[in-house]
Amino acid sequence: MLPCFAPAGTAARPVTVVAASAYGTWLESTDPRTRAWLEESGFKAKGGAVALLPDEHGKVARALLVASEPAEPWDAAALQAALPAGVWALADGANALPPHHAVLGWALAAYRFTRYRADENARPQLILPTGAGVERAMVLAEATWQARDLVNTPASDLGPAELAAAVEAVAHRHDAACKVIVGDALLDANYPAIHAVGRASARPPRLIDLTWGDPTAPKLTLVGKGVCFDTGGLDIKPSSNMLLMKKDMGGAALMLALAQCVMALELRVRLRLLIPAVENSVGGAAFRPGDVITMRSGTTVEITNTDAEGRLILADAIAEADGEEPSLLLDAATLTGAARVAVGPELPALFTPDDALAEAILRQGEAAFEPLWRLPLHAPYLTYLKSQVADIANASSKTFAGAVTAALFLKEFVKRTKLWAHLDIFAWNDDSRPGRPRGGEATALRALLGLVEERFGRPR
């Protein structure tokens, strides 16, 4: 159990939960002192509003939470941020805030990154509610905490080896198999692009490969970009653009979190997680503009920009995944600044050639309070990746549609799989909102878990 929760039976102060539309009736029925306190303080009964209610001695004795309609996890997140330290319990006879929303929102708001600086402030705890969906909410919260920790950890302490160790720890916890191909062994195993991108770093590149589940179940394959730091390579980034490049493995963190949820909930799938983990460094061994790489698939790629490295390592991993023709192939990456220009930091950009799959992902995003936005795989833009010396270039010759051309590049390596989707994510909360503190984020985790559950069935 996460430390923001307390077990049942612990002495606690109550939080009365009232739906926004029922607030007037509740106010009339409550005691005159509480009514006067709320009216005199100018309390506004809108979703997520919290009031601390005193006893006759002026001490905080209880609290009021107004739930949105429909209720959402961010109501509980706002509550967590507003309450003083101590143990609290929800008093919600009308089920205005379903337990799974309460657990998820509270836990996401309680997250703190404490690896380098202790959180010395006393924090409130919530008596863990019971009810439908609570176990799933806890699984999601724990996976989100881990993903946030990974993204927030700087490259000084999270390189390819440490990312592999994090995957191995999750594999061990769920009795999954995990193998790692490291350094020059990538060439022997025919992963030339992963090797080329990572070879200049003192920390060798690797491909992390986790497998789990019933061999007879439908195959779900997840691919996550694991660039633990991105200098841009020889096409080096300006220093200001490097400040957040510790988060360039956010796609890997997201897909590891999704894999962790799939295994913890024992979903009916045969799971494979592939994470190409590299550091894109400047050095004598760095790959160069003008180089041509023969990829795992046999496609030749001219390097026109060494800062377009994520799609290269993903392409090798996607080619490996595609060879098995999984029932569903999902990849996620902090791939392009163009996606952020197009849809901003809060909306993951979704690409898929399948309309029904797109509709399902978008619907799950809305249901999980985690909207995505579909962008087109506009085939004519593939001409922007034309090369005079190779099958394709790794970066566009134009400044237009950068997220689209990156997705089109990846699509070239999906030959056999019928259902594939690519997410171009930010993996970072640029501003703090209830339950979404500034920093690393498992962007689209809830939406993707809902998709997997819908497509392959609930826990066995």
Identify the notable features of this structure and list them briefly.
460 residues; alpha/beta; Leucine Aminopeptidase, subunit E, domain 1; Aminopeptidase; 2 domains; 9-stranded mixed sheet; 6-stranded mixed sheet; 15 helices; 34% helix; elongated
Detailed description of the structure:
The protein has 15 helices and 20 strands. It is of the alpha/beta class. The protein has two domains: 5-110, Leucine Aminopeptidase, subunit E, domain 1 (3-Layer(aba) Sandwich); 137-456, Aminopeptidase. Strands 7, 8, 9, 10, 11, 14, 15, 16 and 18 form a nine-stranded mixed beta sheet that branches. It has a six-stranded mixed beta sheet with strand order 1-6-5-2-4-3, sandwiched between helices. A three-stranded mixed beta sheet has the order 12-13-17, covered by helices on one side. α3 packs across α4 (99-110) and α13 crosses α15 (445-456). The longest helix is centred in the N-terminal third of the chain and has 19 residues, at 134-152. The radius of gyration is 24 Å and the shape is elongated.
